[in-house]
Every structure is written in structure tokens, then in C-alpha cells.
Amino acid sequence: MLDRLTDLILFRYTNQGKDDNSNSTPYITMGSIVWGGLVRIGIIIVVTWSVVEYYDLRDYWMIPLLLIVAFVIYPASRQYYHFTGRIEVMQEETLCGSCKHFDPTSQLCRVFDEHVSTTYIPCEGDSWEPLSYEERS
């Protein structure tokens, strides 16, 4: 549990190359991006609150905002771009990517409620239905 929390805080999976489309359970999802941002912003708030109270630094309110941008917003945006790029590749490479039951935000097949990867297709192509022209945009 502690290792998983540390990985979420530091975004280690992208740096180590462990997150690709062949894993049956994705390491990086929208939930992990949001959870990592919430944990980091919570840590920043607690630390800056205690430092401001201890040293009476109420005039330096811009420092916590810069910390939030540097340690929350920037890593989360980088992680989101990595996530969306990986989803685009999955939509081009797999049969599930062109199915109307595929949910790209959670990498799930809505019919079977299972994660999709390049090595695992939940329905094995039996429940595949093509996206209509209106659903593609």
C-alpha cells in the first residue's frame, strides 16, 4: 500500500516505462491522476500551513501557489497527456478501440466491465459493434 501511494505521488510508472497497453490492469487511469493530485495538494497544504503558522509568514502567500503549480498541476498535466496518448494508440491498435462499448476514460469494456489491453479483449470480438459516424467525433 505504501509503495503504491509513493508511486502515485511521484508518477514512477511513466518514468520506468511500466505503463503500456499490454497490462491487463492499467497503472495510470484518470482516477490515479486525480488521486495523485489530491494527495500532493494535501501534503503541500499541510506543510505550508504549518510553516506559515510557525514562522508567521502570512505575507508570502505566493509561495504555496507556486508549489501547487510546480508539484500538482504540472505533473498531473504531463500524466494526462501520457494517458491520452496511450488511449489514442489503444484505439488504433485494438479491436476494442473501435467498438461502441469501449470507454476511453476508464479503459473499460462497458458490456463486461473489464479493462481492455492489447493482449486481452474481454468479449473476444463476439460483442463488438462498430462506432457510428456521430459517435466518433
Can you put this structure into words, describing what you see?
The protein is mainly alpha-helical and 137 residues long. It has two domains: 93 residues, no CATH class; 43 residues, no CATH class. Helix content is 55%, strand content 4%. It has a three-stranded antiparallel sheet with strand order 1-2-3, with no helix packed on it. Strand 1 and strand 2 form a beta hairpin. Helix 1 crosses helix 3. It is elongated. The model has no long low-confidence stretch (mean pLDDT 81).
Compose a concise summary of this entry.
The chain has 137 residues and is mainly α. The chain has helices at 2-10, 12-16, 30-55, 62-93, 133-136, and strands at 102-103, 108-109, 114-115.
Tell me the number of structural domains: 2
Mean residue pLDDT: 81
Order of strands in the sheet with the most strands? 1-2-3
Topology, number of strands: 3
Oligomer state of the chains in this structure: single chain
Contiguous low-pLDDT stretches (5 residues minimum) are: none
Spell the H/E element sequence. HHHHEEEH
Radius of gyration: 19 Å
Number of helices: 5
Biggest beta sheet attributes: 3 strands, antiparallel
Category from helices, strands and their pairing: mainly alpha
Task: Give the CA-CA distance, first to last residue.
Answer: 39 Å
